[in-house]
Write a structure and sequence with these properties.
Radius of gyration: 22 Å
Number of helices: 14
Largest sheet: 8 strands, antiparallel
Number of strands: 19
Low-confidence stretches: 374-427
Mean pLDDT: 86
Strand order of the largest sheet: 13-10-12-11-15-16-14-17
Strand content: 15-25%
Shape: globular
Distance between the termini: 37 Å
């Protein structure tokens, strides 16, 4: 397919907004590839599946993978997103020995702006693969993805409370004590809720109709609708926020819980109503320092009130060039400010302080959580270069007519002192 044909298939005048309508864009041309035969090939022996990139995680979890007794090794909070989207942005779940979702990609098929299709993997066109597996779409449109799954499994999840001090002091023990560990902190308190999840052969926990009704009342009537109303009310009386955080922690989270369920149902969780979010990845050994600094800043900044939760998750290092986990085990720290009834609440001062704390700790922004601005990177543009151990192969795949690789021009470089090879990535 020629470049002119590709451009002719683009739609003009389309404006895009994210689900929370916190940011949007109006591209020159909008392309909406159709996903038809979602599953192309399945290798049950090696637990690999080849699919079109437009298939959603929900379709994989509920429709396709169960047919073959397979499951995704790790997931983020939601599944109503495409596999191509989570791969392109390095979407992550949690687990000290589990990488981002991009790290489970075995092979990609790309369509460049010249109409050329490129197959890439760790064995073929490796440089392109390492740039495209978490590539923000800069290397071309993802057409198909071969993904490493595993035999379907149940997860047993344990929920209990603790304090921020206890979690930080015993962080490594927590990370090592389960396959998937995460916790949330309630700002303006020292309260923390912890989840540990492990694979298990135990049967799925049975839930009665009465238990479902009780769960709906607490999780939605109180934990969603009442919370949204009170956060809306706090827009007129901001000093209510610490009390709201304290009360809802005690109402909803102080009871210890254990549940067994299908893996994707345990991995996914309710993200509530519209919200501004900001998430960065930091070196894992900086976790305690960053959380203490964030708590200290909130304590001394009397005119800023932070919504709950501050969510903390853990990801294994990888070698994907612009992955936030490139070359280091990371901790992802996510902050949030809700938009009750779609009403904006001032968040810029909180965001700026958080980003400064993360930047000082060597943080890297999570591509899926918001528009990347130059100030996030903390590097002047003259230090950003097009680099690569084989830059010609990457330029060859670039969809940009100038031949420059936009993502490599925007991202600081990484100098590997051990190998002596300069590769595209983070400083």
């Amino acid at each position: 397919m020629a470049t002119n044909e590709i451009r002719a298939s683009g739609i003009r005048g389309v404006q895009f907004f994210n689900w929370a309508r916190t940011f949007g864009c109006r591209p020159e041309l909008f392309f909406a590839p159709k996903t038809e035969d979602e599953v192309i090939k399945v290798n049950e022996e090696s637990s690999m599946i080849k699919v079109q990139a437009g298939v959603t995680l929900q379709e994989l979890n509920e429709k396709h993978l169960p047919k073959y007794g397979l499951a995704l090794p790790v997931l983020g909070a939601v599944s109503d997103v495409t596999l191509g989207g989570v791969v392109n942005t390095g979407t992550h779940g949690t687990g000290g020995n589990y990488g981002t979702m991009s790290t489970y990609v075995v092979e990609l098929e790309l369509l460049t702006s010249s109409g050329q299709k490129i197959q890439c993997s760790r064995e073929e066109n490796k440089e392109i693969f390492l740039a495209a597996a978490c590539g923000l779409g800069a290397m071309g449109i993802l057409i198909t993805i071969t993904y490493q799954c595993e035999p379907a499994f149940h997860l047993e999840k344990h929920q209990f409370t603790s304090t921020l001090r206890e979690v930080i002091e015993h962080l490594n023990l927590h990370i090592k004590s389960s396959e998937h560990f995460r916790f949330i902190w309630f700002p303006h308190t020292d309260s923390v809720v912890i989840w540990h999840s492990n694979r298990t052969n135990k049967p799925i926990t049975k839930v009665t109709k009465l238990q479902r009704c009780i769960s709906w009342f607490w999780n939605y009537c109180i934990g969603y609708y009442a919370l949204e109303f009170l956060y809306w009310l706090s827009t007129f009386f901001p000093s209510m926020v610490p009390t709201i955080n304290y009360v809802f922690y005690n109402l909803l989270f102080t009871e210890n819980k254990e549940v067994v369920g299908e893996s994707y149902k345990i991995f996914n969780f309710e993200c509530l109503f519209k919200q501004h979010v900001n998430e960065w990845a930091i070196p894992r050994d900086q976790t305690g320092s960053v959380l203490w600094k964030l708590q200290e800043w909130l304590d001394k900044t009397s005119d800023v009130y932070a919504h709950f939760p501050v969510e903390v998750r853990f990801v294994k290092k990888d070698d994907l060039y612009i992955s936030p986990s490139y070359g280091q085990d990371t901790t992802y720290i996510n902050i949030i400010m809700y938009k009750p009834y779609n009403k904006d609440i001032p968040y810029q001062q909180y965001w700026a302080a958080y980003e400064e704390i993360m930047r000082i700790a060597g943080g890297r922004p999570h591509w899926a959580k918001g528009p990347v601005k130059g100030r996030w990177l903390g590097h002047s543009t003259h230090n950003m270069k097009v680099v690569g151990s084989n830059p010609h192969s990457i330029k060859h795949a670039s969809p940009f007519s100038s031949g420059s690789v936009i993502m490599f021009r925007l991202i600081p470089i990484f100098d590997s002192k051990k190998s002596g090879i300069r590769v595209g990535g983070w400083r």
